[in-house]
Every structure is written in structure tokens, then in C-alpha cells.
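Example 157.
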Amino acid sequence: MLDISTLEKRLRAAFPQRTVEGVIAPHDCEECVALRANLKNETWDSVPDKFVGENADVLPLLSEAGYAAYLPAWIQYALRQPNSDVANMLLVNLGHEPRTSKFNAAQASLIIEVAEFLTANNAFGAADPVNQESRAKIAQAWAELRPNKSLERTRER
Ligand SMILES: [Zn+2]
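Predicted structure in complex with zinc ion:
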């Protein structure tokens, strides 16, 4: 059984607090300028909830390094508010626009469990077809990084 305090503890353990040295959001528009200004020198836990809440849809604008560093802030918000726009957009992002390149196996496993938690705890519930589809897509996208998956592949060879 997944509970929020365990997931939050594991989120902290899996994603260290760090700032991004390079570009946080590469695009040149007002929204991306604001993103860079607000996230610069922040670690994921220091990003204000208010900022995350007002920026439910910005994950695709982040660079790969920015995405890997700040995704946990959006995850934490979503865990606490599974019916928020942040949670809904996060499920879409993790399944349809996953950028897994900078993540390790432990982080990927946690992301899959976050998807299970969110789809079980939003208003639609675990059995809802849209929730089921989100969960399946996210599991497929992130399971690539899980060690047991690569073991299976080795055995197939
Ligand atoms: Zn932009």
C-alpha cells in the first residue's frame, strides 16, 4: 500500500537537492525567461508551492537538466494535491513526454509508483480507463530504466 509520507520520504532520498549549472529552460519567450528567473539557484525543495501551482504546464519547457532537477517539485505538489492541474498535467507529461535520459533506475521506479498513487487517489480512481491508460503509458516509458527490465533483456539474448 502506497502512502504519501512514504512516497515523500522516498522522493527526498531519490532526488538530491541541487541547483542547475547550465540552462534551465532554453527557449526565448516571456514564459521561459520567467521560468529561468524563478528557478535559478533554487533546489527542487525550495521552489515555492505557489509557483508550481501557477505553472502546472511548464515541464515541457525545461531543459533535460532542468527537468531532472525540478520534476520532484511538481511530483511533491501532485502527491499532496492529486486533483490539482499540476497532478493532471504531470500524469500527461510523464506518459506522453517523458524525458528519461538523466534519471536513474531508483528514480524511475519511484515515478512509476507516483503514477500508481496519483491515479488511485484522484477523483476518477484506479479503475477509470483514462487513469489506467496513463498508468500503463508511464510504466512503459519509465520501466526501461529499471534494473530488472534490463536483466530480462539480457536473458532474452
Ligand atoms: Zn518559451
